[in-house]
UniProtKB/TrEMBL annotation, chains A, B:
InterPro entries: P-loop_NTPase, Polyphosphate_phosphotransfera, PPK2-rel_1, PPK2-related. Belongs to the polyphosphate kinase 2 (PPK2) family. Class I subfamily. Residues 39-260 form the Polyphosphate kinase-2-related domain. Keywords: ATP synthesis, Kinase, Transferase. This is Polyphosphate kinase 2 family protein. GO terms for biological process: ATP biosynthetic process; polyphosphate metabolic process. It catalyses: [phosphate](n) + ATP = [phosphate](n+1) + ADP. GO terms for molecular function: polyphosphate kinase activity. The lineage of its organism: Bacteria, Pseudomonadati, Pseudomonadota, Alphaproteobacteria, Hyphomicrobiales.
Amino acid sequence: MTELERSIIARVRVEPGENVSLRERDPRDSRLFGEEKGTKSATAALAKEIDALQDRLYAEGSRALLVILQGTDTSGKDGTIRNVFNATGPLGVSVTPFGVPSKAEQAHDYLWRVHAACPRRGTIGIFNRSHYESVLVEKVRNLSSPELIEQRYDQINAFEKHLVENGTTILKFLLHISKDEQKERLQERLNDPRKHWKFNPGDLDDRTHWDEYQDAYDIMLQRCSTPHAPWHVIPADRKWVRNATIATIVKATLEEMDPQYPKAQWKPGAFTIS
Amino acid sequence: MTELERSIIARVRVEPGENVSLRERDPRDSRLFGEEKGTKSATAALAKEIDALQDRLYAEGSRALLVILQGTDTSGKDGTIRNVFNATGPLGVSVTPFGVPSKAEQAHDYLWRVHAACPRRGTIGIFNRSHYESVLVEKVRNLSSPELIEQRYDQINAFEKHLVENGTTILKFLLHISKDEQKERLQERLNDPRKHWKFNPGDLDDRTHWDEYQDAYDIMLQRCSTPHAPWHVIPADRKWVRNATIATIVKATLEEMDPQYPKAQWKPGAFTIS
């Protein structure tokens, strides 16, 4: 891992037990990167490196990487997937969006559908929202009792530990945008007919709960950034900074995993093809 | 659809009821394309168009495209996914490989796991092998009785008709390679340590059944190329011809589907973002 990678990670990673507050983290922070154009080219290059590393992960076939994206509406979860993982293509990468649970899903515990969607060995799984909704929207909207929600932080930590111990590396990214930036992005969806489909009037209602969501994020970060599955708070007001930061961490993590083309269990000379 | 697209499709599409024989189809056919370099650039451009069309399909959210890839070992199923769909990225595209059914899958009918993996609305699903294995390997290896296999062609047609009537467009591609070409590609896997993991000694055993597989493909093509879900025999000895042909058909099909950004159900002026 390079010094630059190390310092980018150190800046955004939430240390276990850290008393993190989103209000003290600048969503427009771009200090670790140069100017926009060069950073965008560097991100495109990182995306290709991620592709090459994913090839090796796929060939190795024994471990997986789970990338969890959380963030308020318009924070750029889809855009992150497009920019960081587009060069990686669909072979060996799966994306699972988690919306309001269906009736069938509600008939199970909240981790049931999540476990079912976890990436198979050799692949990268990307969660667009995740089990963390159970301590975010469910908390803010009082959809579950405080007692149940209180239990969930530890349950989630135990679940993620289980995944990690069984061969899945986990990276969690909270896309951190300002309330002003959200306003601009929502307005853009209203103004641009091509973006109308992305506008959901319900988002405005969620926006009135902005502060409560920020508080819920803080608790989630404090309770669930663990040594085995760390949270990262990504400055996301600038899309190019967001993409560069996440691409850097994903690439460095895959490099640390260092997947290997498996050695043949046979001797090449043993076969003749007729 | 352009004249060129029409003629490419006409050349490789299997007409319903056509008495097709793979032995009469040239796996090295490249007549419809110019020279290699220009064709490769054109394919890369098509991949970007597919990406743009997929964006609209995703926004529309009401229909799906299912791409089924079949072909003998080394015929290039993974390579097709890489080259035709890499620009499309993982958002809105899922790849499902079908291997030997697990015990749990075998406890259900052979279409059960297939139905479960069908693409959700707004997305492209790619099957790397598919339910057709139930009339290919199971036929050649006598894993199911002739009576059961005989029933399956009609069952598969009915299943696919159901999918089409419920909003999924289906394209089926048989990657057609020669026995000589397979020999070269298997040898390459033995020679190149980076490809060792792709070599499966069992493939050599399948190779000894080459003619029986070709016969099973012929019957599958004759029985299951339907107006609603046509088969295409793709000349696949040359990878660039294979990629160009499939990219052309996928792009033309998505263009015919003509997905639309949904119209807003509200008036933009109705909302103020505070």
